[in-house]
Amino acid sequence: MAMQIERSNVVPVAGKGANENQIGALLIDAGKLIPQDAERVLRYAKEKNLRFGDAAIELGLATREEIERAIAVQFGYPYVALGESPVAPEVVAAYRPFSRQVEVLRALRSQLLVRWFGDSLDRKRLAIVSINHGDGRSYLAANLAVVFSQLGEHTLLIDADMRKPRQHQIFGLSNTVGLSTVLSARAGTEAIHRIPAFKDLSVLPAGPIPPNPQELLDRSVFTEALDEWSRHFDVVLLDTSAASEAADARIIASKAQGAFILTRLNKTKLNEVKDFQGGLSQLGVVLVGSVINR
Question: In this structure, are residues 226 and 255 in contact, taking their beta carbons and an 8 Å threshold?
């Protein structure tokens, strides 16, 4: 599924003056190079027939990470450096877009775009579900939300796990209002947070943990809210609680009408997955796909 993108496909070659100068200018603007060093890199790149980034690295004037960041900015591909954002390091798509892990996530994104997301309101939302706590649902949901937003898809990530929520921690957000307060009519769209580092990404935290999460999720107001958000966003991803702990995930998946199942290597039991899939199918949920988390 994963496809390795070679840097030679995206890094301008030496001699393409405008592109080379743009990378140099981006590094200067970021305080990584001074103008004299940029000129030195250009001369060295031309002499050795190197790309600007490779020349800067060989001269010891820039790191690979700094070059990759400049390239991402040049091509309008948003990501951040560690320490620049409250987003947690586990969101690898936010910090290491050239890594193997993120290549796999982008391949998964492509599969989901082909198999599920479309123009219909009912195919704009997808529940990320799994059997057990600790399977990695929040990690997958957060990273998928980032890679969809990096593609320019207007993305909303909803933390619908109102038992052990994590998305507010992952994105460094307040959890004083969120889905629980929206569903109990104590908050509106102001509970949705735009993520500054990614112009097409918004997150709705779970909000304060309620005593009755299952009842809140089963209310018609949740369906109505999902319909409304689906009119304003291209992709709506829902993080869920563990299916083994409560019926919440089944309710969320039925309202999303599509689910993606995450399993854990050497942990998830096959018979539990089959039973869970059967229950979702009876609710009319489309099982879009599955992935094994190592």
Answer: yes
